[in-house]
Amino acid sequence: SKTLNAGNMESLIECPSEADAKKCPLLGPADTEDRLCQLAGTKKRKKVISWPFALRRTSTSGDSPGQLDSGLKITLFGQPLAIICGEDDTLPQPVQDLLTILYMKGPSTEGIFRKAANEKARKELKEDLNKGGNVDLESKAVHLLAVVLKDFLRNIPSKLLSDDLYDKWMLALEKPSKQEKIEELKEVADKLPRPNLVLLKQLLSVLHHISQNADTSRMDANNLAICVGPNMLSPGTGSMLPLEVQKEMNDK
């Protein structure tokens, strides 16, 4: 995770220029201009999936067990991204809004993703989002939004970077040269489910933008990796590892 957020991982995503970033900060299928329009209460052009979401299935056969059950509602937290994303892999609107606000306000917020938030407020906001409530995220404290986003990442089954790919991520970082690391990491990223890759690109765009303003946020790539990384990938083992091994994994 540290490498993902460091300079030698920048080629994994197309980081926008400073001028372009202001126009369209987030990458992927989500239209950031529309996200900003939604936050401002103006008319949007892009259709987004409603919330709460009906369970999305792939089959259209009437008697198939994969048929869409429009009456079954699910929560936002703790679900595979493939379940809660739109048919075109559009991220859930609350997640898009969290990313957009953190892109705009994160760089000017000291200790973003590091400082804790009020635990009661975190639980209440998480509950409201799970219920599909109409939540005014812009009115919430920025640190609270960062903590809730980390909570969302932590509760993705098998994690955003996929526990099944853990060994491949680690092996990629053992390549001798920077360019070989980059190429290998890109190959591993291509093995992620499409919704995971969409969220990864947008999240890295936000983290990169914050790290570029580390003089204000006090959060460079290393600090962001320490605070966010453990929520993105884990060994997926239930056994306790020796402290030295844990440290080596955390460094990677």
TrEMBL record:
Swiss-Prot/TrEMBL keywords: GTPase activation, Guanine-nucleotide releasing factor, Phosphoprotein
A GO biological-process term: regulation of Rho protein signal transduction
Database matches in Gene3D superfamilies: Rho GTPase activation protein
Gene Ontology MF, one: GTPase activator activity
Pfam family, one: RhoGAP
Rho-GAP domain ranges (all copies): 79-252
PANTHER family in alphabetical order: T-CELL ACTIVATION RHO GTPASE ACTIVATING PROTEIN-RELATED, T-CELL ACTIVATION RHO GTPASE-ACTIVATING PROTEIN
Protein name: T-cell activation Rho GTPase-activating protein
Organism: Chrysolophus pictus
Record lineage: Eukaryota, Metazoa, Chordata, Craniata, Vertebrata
